[in-house]
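Why do we care about 3D structure at all? Because function follows from shape, and shape follows, mostly, from sequence. That is the central idea of this module. The next example makes it concrete: a single protein chain, its amino acid sequence, and then its structure expressed as tokens.
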Amino acid sequence: MRKHIRRALKSLDRLDQDRLHSLVGDLVSDNEQLEMVLSSIPGGVMVMNQENRVMMINTPARRLLPLSYDDPIDQLAWEAISSGELAQAVREALEADQGAPMRDFPIMLRGRSLILGCGILPLVDRGRIKGSMLYVEDVTEIRAEAARLKRAESLASLTTMAAGVAHEIKNPLASMSIHLQLMKRQMKGDCAPAEDLRDSVEVLEEEVDRLNSVLSDYLFAVRPRDSRPSHADLNGLVTDLLQFVRFEAQEAHVAVVPLLDDELPLIPLDEGAMKRALLNLVKNAVAAMPEGGELRVQTRYEGDNASIIVSDTGTGIPEELQGKIFEPYFTTRDTGSGLGLTVVYKVVKEHGGDIQMDSSVGRGTTFRILLPVPQGEHKLLSGG
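And the structure:
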């Protein structure tokens, strides 16, 4: 139909009255059909021309958007929207002549609190931007359900972790009780020789350290942290960490190979939390190589991400267990709190990153952490 109308417009001055009526009728019919389609979709659509003025708005958009005018046609898009935060976001995207990904905006509309998911798409014709489209949908119930699920998952996780803590605490307390009773029997006289008490005191010290480690990991895993990220040199952090564990690695006959990318930019990091997470990965890697091996810690700058790759040549993780490794208190070792990888996962997610794992029995394990590099940080190189 569009080609037919274009051909007719080229010969407009030669059309008789009947053909003109037919052409106008086709245009009206096409427009009505377009309006019907736009009003039938569940999401709201507001279309703007190259001057950022509203050309078209469908019924769902009129219902969902907080509008400043009864009829927003020909108004600047951001002036047609009465919600300050949403209007400002629309203005910034349109004046920058680029789209904007879907983002949530809490608004008040006719006395109701809503969450609108909004995004802007450029309208491109033959390689040129001819306007923009604001798409909006009501995600209030979806976000509420997601929040309910998250609370339920958090409660279930907390219950599991609490049970794990109770189990982990029970064993050292039992050991401490036994050695305290032994010390009491040894001290029944006026005085007990120091050498008779030394072994029990050493066991008590070890068990106190073990309890402290269990509780420290537990609190770190469950307690919301007041994170204060600052521009950090990830290469420097890795270098300091490997220096810290060098003697432990040497005793385990593990060769440590750092491979650091000199082009890595500075990125916002909570250095203490990230160092703790990487230390857990490195210690796990060393423990996975009881006969010695090679530990590689690599950094890379990959477009919008900085990556940290920790690889070992150890025993590997069986495939049937790989889906459980980040669960609280899941461990294949006889010692440890079982919270190490839970802490790693928590720290990475709090930094807006992702963590991936690849492992096979007999070949070793590789953990890959991806951390986003904000646009403004791309030019800030490590050491610069």
